[in-house]
Specification:
The chain is mainly alpha-helical and about 30 residues long. The protein is built from one helix and no strands. The relative contact order is 0.11.
Length: about 30
């Protein structure tokens, strides 16, 4: 069970990183 909880945490962090990169790309396209 403990490993499953850690895996979920990893997935959540990866999703947050993807959202941040997507927002940065949108900001960059708006600046250009």
């Amino acid at each position: 069970m403990n490993s499953l909880r850690g895996l979920r945490r990893k997935v959540r962090s990866i999703r947050s990183i993807q959202q941040i990169t997507r927002a940065m790309k949108m900001v960059a396209s708006i600046r250009l």
